[in-house]
Task: structure prediction
Amino acid sequence: MEENVSEIMQRITFSVVKYLETKTGVCNVKLHERTGTTKEALSSWEQKNSCLLPDDLKNYYLTSNGIKLTWSVKIDSSNPYPLGLMYLHPVDDIMEITGKSKNKAGKTVTKEQDSDTESEDEDSGLKKPSFTSSYRIFELDPCAGLGKVCLVYRNSHSGCSEIWFLDRSLRWHFLVANFTTYYRLMLLHLGLPQWQYIFTDIGLSMQAKQWFNIYAPSRIQTDVSQGRTYEHDLRDSLSVTPNQLDVSKIFKGKNEKK
Result:
C-alpha cells in the first residue's frame, strides 16, 4: 500500500533522529512518541472553536498527536546541555490567541496593536495578521518563550490557513503556506534554537549561528555568486516530495558535499 504524506513525514522524523545520533557531541536524543488522535477529537476541536482544521494538519494528528523531539550536546567533560527542540501542541492544547489578557485586578485588557497591523509581509506580499475579528489565530508552538508559531486563518470556515511566526515584539513574519511544508522546515532545522528567526529581519543571535555552523551549516549559507539567499534556496528544496528528501545530504555544508 502506498504511504500517505503523514506516514512519510513520520518516516522522515525517525530519519532525523538517526541522523542526530551520528553527530559528534549530540546525546540524549529523545522522541516522545505520541499515538495519533481520533477523528472524534479533531471534530470536537473544530466544533469547540468553530473553525475547520486544514486537511494536512488533521491527517498528521491522526498519525501523531503533536510532537516533542529533544536533544542535547556534550562538550568535553561538561554536563549535557539541552539544545534542540522540535515541538507541536497536542490537538487539545491548540489554543486561540486573541491579543487580550487580564491585569492584576482581573480586568481584560487589550495589547497595543503591533506596528505590523494591516501592513504586508515583504517576502510573501501577504497582508500581516492582526488581533482583530478578521483573523483567527492559534498557537502551534510556544518556541520556548522566544516567540510563537501560529496557524492563521483569514477565513476560518474554509479551512484555508497559513503558518506565521509572531516574535516577542508582536511582529508577524510569514513562514509557509501550509502545515506539511512547515513540518519539513522544522525537521530541516533540527529544532535548533531560534531557527524561525532566519525568516525574519531580526536574524539569528551570534550564539545561535555558532550552533548552526556546527550542526546544520547549510541552513545559514548564502550563495552570493547566484545572488540567492538561503531562504529562497530552502523554499526550492522543499518543492520536492517528502520521500525524495535525503536526510544525510540536507544538512551538509558546501565544503562537505562531494
User: Anything to note?
Assistant: The beta strands are 26-31, 67-73, 81-88, 100-102, 108-110, 136-141, 148-155, 160-166, 172-176. Residues 25 and 78 are 11 Å apart (CA to CA). The domain at 5-251 is CATH 3.40.1580.10 (SMI1/KNR4-like).
